[in-house]
Each structure stands twice: as structure tokens, then as C-alpha cells.
Amino acid sequence: MMTTTQDLTGRILTLDVGPMAHGGHCIARHEGRVIFVRHAIPGEVVRAKLTDAGPQAKFWRADVVEVVDGSDYRRRHIWKLADSLRAHEMERLPVGGAEFGHITDQHQRRLKAQVFRDTLQRIGGISAQDAAMCQDPADGEIHVSDIGTPHSNGLHWRTRVTFGVDEHGSLAMKPHRSHDLIELRGMPLAVEAIHESTLFSADFSGARRVEAVAPGGAEPVALVVHADAERAADGALAERMRRLAAADSRIGSIVLALARTEAPPRRRGRGARRGRAPAPSTVVEHETVVGSPTVEEPLPTPVAGPEGVRSTVAVRPEGFWQIHRHAPQALVRTVADLAQVEPGDAVADLYAGAGLFTAWAAEAVGPQGSVLSVEGARSSSSSAAELFAGSQTVTVRRAAVEAALDALSGSDVVLLDPPRAGAGRDVVAGLDDAGPRRVVYVACEPASFARDAKDLLARGWRMRRLQVLDLYPNTHHMESVAVFER
Fold first, then answer.
1. pLDDT value at position 3?
2. d(Cα 112, Cα 422) in Å, to the nearest integer?
3. Contact predicate 194/223, CB 8 Å
4. Which tens digits make up the pLDDT trace of 191-201?
């Protein structure tokens, strides 16, 4: 194995590219050293520049700067700023967020399927062929389904994008594992309402980051502009945002998220001088300078209420909602197919957000059934509470899932859609204790899903069905829906 006491970052090596690994990079080796190579395709021969090659590193990292023998599945990158080959020519790093943009659409999904299968095996010890699953197609393999518009090249699907702000006040994004900011003139993965707006020529001086939201993929766009309160006031940020909205009819609302640092309260009494002084706290206040503090996201399943049927849910733009314009419909359709909920069932929807799956479950169980919707985030839970205020079927509970496990007893079906960290052992144990006939697990991270699936299988559950969806084209991310039964 190659040993060195030198930092070789910046050196260019010729590498034979091996398999794709979870995280968006391929595995290569140089004199026994493992190198994680981004912007490559398995089977290629490339020249790659080492971006992290410290002498104590267990493995190195590299970006492709030249293709010596390319794959048949390589295409011209869909975004110039994210293309490592062009970035090298310009003596800069590629922007992150489109690390699969050089790979044809179908091959991206083949690689994601391979990564998902390998992650299940490596972390969960689960073989797709041995998981007793009913698969379509029934070939014993995992497949990743496209949910996007045909022939779109994976463009214009993101309805929510977070940008940095550079020293000139321009929207910017960072390269992978870097704090540098690269100015943007558009964002081709974002829906047209964002990509074609005037945001990229606007002056956001005084802001730290900007969230742009196009609810349902359409206009008007909502902005959440994050800034330090004092700096925003000094730079008249609010007034510039009003002028921006007045000049572009595609921008419907702008909310300032202003952070203030507050000193801790002074201690009194005999113990005041003992121990470490409490740290200052940061308080964020929201100020709506244009339009509304919420956006209306379309619901695949309308909700009947005292004021009529609602086909949208009001959510704060900085709150959670699926970011692919077709994701809510695709996920509800997939969950409905796999969950097999029956009229009169009791369903628990964990990590329920603003109620995407709760709305579907309420319709599926009908007036004789019940749905418990559990969400810990205040804004999302408030959106769900308002949406289901007139429902006799739905109970909305704002609580951490771990604190609501006692309420799962008697559930026929438990649905959970945890964050990237997964559900964890305590939640899995609570699911097992509740004893539903079926658990439906929606996951956005293969590794955490594999850990939780391993725990469920160890408790006597079986994975009966699995679908993997390409909710994040031109990136390494993917979504899965799995059904577990006794």
C-alpha cells in the first residue's frame, strides 16, 4: 500500500474507475490507496485531481479533470458550472448539487439501483433476492423508477432551492466540501419559475442565504431571505426586496428571517459566579415584507372541511415539503399501492409534516376509520392542524415521534417518513411493540433505511415490497418506499 508523509492534494493521477458508491462518487485505487472519485462513471479511465490527499487520510478524494477512455453513458454535462471538466479549465471547483449531470438519465437510475442494492447488503445484511419481496418486474433486482417529464434530461424539477449570497450580493452555490461561493446566473435543476426569474441579477447584499420556493412548481415564487438583523437594517435589505418584487411579477412574497443574538440573563445569588457563563442565544424573527407568510402547496388528495373541499395546504416557505414538482403525487400513488389500507382501518402517520400522507390516509380509511398525524416541527404541525380542523377522522398531535409511541397501540398500519438520519432503534422498538399488521417506511437515505430495516427484520418482520423512486435527477439521492409485515 502506498504510504507518504506528504499532502498530495492538487496532484493529478490517471485512474481506472471502479464501482459507484453511496454518496455520488466512484471507487478507484492507486498503489493500494482507496480514492473516492467524483464526476466519473464506472469503467472509465480518467485523469483526476486530488482534492483531499492528506498523509493521515484513510482514503483520498478526487475530481475528474480529463476523460481518457469514456463510458458510452457519458454526455455533455447539463450545467456548465457543475461540470468538473470545464471547471478545471477555468481553474476553479465545480458547483455542487448536480454530481450525476454528466451521466445519461437511464444509466443514472441503473447506478442508483446498484448503490441501493449494495447499501442494503453492506449495512443491513439484506439481499434483494432473499428478501421475499413481490417485485415488478419480478427479476429479483431493484429498479429505480423515473417520475419526471419524459425527455427532460432531469431539468427543472426542483421547486425549492437554497442559495448562498456572495460578497457582491449575488446568489451563489458552493462546490462539494468547500466553503467557496460561485456566482450563479441560473439554476437549471430548478423549475422555470425560479430559473428564469430575475433573482440571479438581484442584489441580496446583507443576506446570508436565500430560499426560493415555487409551490407546485408554478408562479408566484416565494423567498425567505436570511440575514443578521443589524446588518439587514444597515443595508436597507427590506426596501430592496420590495423593489425586487415590484419589478418581477413572478415573485409573490418575500419573508425576512432576521437573526438576533441575545445575551443570556444575568445569574443572581450565591451560584452566580460558579461554573461557565451561559452562551448567548440566537433568536430568529420573521418579517413579511411582500405578500403572504405562507404558500399554498397542491394536495394530491383533497381534504373536505367545514368550508368546503381544500385542494391545497398552507405551509411556511421555509418548512418541509417535497422538492420535486411531481413527488407528492408519485409518493402518494406509491404508498397507496403498497400500503393496502382498508376502510375502517386505524392509521398512524409519523413524521407527518403538513399532512401529505395524512390526507390520503383519511380518504382511504373513510368515516369509520381514524388517522393519527404526528409531527414535531411547530410550523408543519400547525399547517396540518389548520388543514384537518374540521375532520372527525384525523387527530393531529405535535410531538416528537419518540414521545408519541404510546399512541400507536391499536394501529392497523403505521406509515413513517423520517428525516435523513432515519427512525432509530427507539422508534423501531415502538413500532414493534404496537404490533400493526403493516409498516410502510418512506426513506430518503438508503444507509439509514438499511439500518432501520435490519432492526425490523431482526424483530421478526419481513420486507414484502419495495419501490425506489428517482425524486432527485442528476444527483446521487433517491427515495424508497418499503412495506414490512409479520
1. 55
2. 19
3. no
4. 999 999 999 99
pLDDT tens sequence across 111-168: 999 999 999 999 999 987 765 555 555 677 899 999 998 889 999 999 999 999 999 9
Residue 264 to residues 81, 229, 251, 359: CA-CA distances in angstroms? 44, 18, 38, 42
The predicted structure's pLDDT at residue 278: 67
Name the phi and psi angles at 274, rounded to 5.
Answer: -90, 145
Q: How far apart are CA 72 and CA 316, in angstroms?
A: 44
pTM: 0.93
Q: How many CA atoms lie within 13 A of 434 on its CB side?
A: 28
Helix axes 446-458, 425-434, angle to 10 degrees: 40
225 burial type by CB count under 10 A (0-12 exposed, 13-18 middle, 19+ buried): buried
User: Using CA atoms, how far apart are residues 469 and 392, in angstroms rounded to an integer?
Assistant: 33
Q: What is the pLDDT of residues 323-344, one digit of tens each?
A: 999 999 999 999 999 999 999 9
> Please, what's the b/e burial string for 416-443 (b: 16 or more CB within 10 A of its CB; e: otherwise)?
bbbeeebbeeebbebbbebebebbbbbb
Pairwise CA distance, residues 322 & 329, whole Å: 10
pLDDT at residue 303 in the model: 97
Q: At what angle do helices 327-339 and 356-365 cross, to 10 degrees?
A: 40
Q: Can you name the residues that pair with 387 across neighbouring β-strands?
A: none
- The C-alpha cell at 480 is 424508497
The three-state DSSP-derived secondary structure of the chain is CCCCCCCCCCCEEEEECCCEECCCEEEEEECCEEEEEECCCCCCEEEEEEEECCCCCCCEEEEEEEEEECCCCECCCCCHHHCHHHHHHCCCCCECCCCCCCECHHHHHHHHHHHHHHHHHHHHCCCHHHCCCCCCCCCCCCCEEECCCCCCCCCCCECEEEEEECCCCCEEECECCCCCCEECCCCCCECHHHHCCCHHHCCCCCEEEEEEECHHHCCCEEEEEEEEHHHHHHCCHHHHHHHHHHHCCCEEEEEEEEEEEECCCCCCCCCCCCCCCCCCEEEEEEEEEECCCCEEEEEEEEEEECCEEEEEEEECCCCCCCCECCHHHHHHHHHHHHHCCCCCCEEEEECCCCCHHHHHHHHHHCCCCEEEEEECCHHHHHHHHHHCCCCCCEEEEECCHHHCHHHHCCCCEEEECCCCCCCCHHHHHHHHHHCCCEEEEEECCHHHHHHHHHHHHHCCCEEEEEEEEECCCCCCCCEEEEEEEC
β-pairing, 45-52 vs 60-69, is: antiparallel
Indicate left, alpha or beta for 156 from its phi (over 0: left) and psi (-120 to 50: alpha).
Answer: left
Question: For residues 142 and 469, what is the distance between their CA atoms, to the nearest angstrom?
Answer: 11
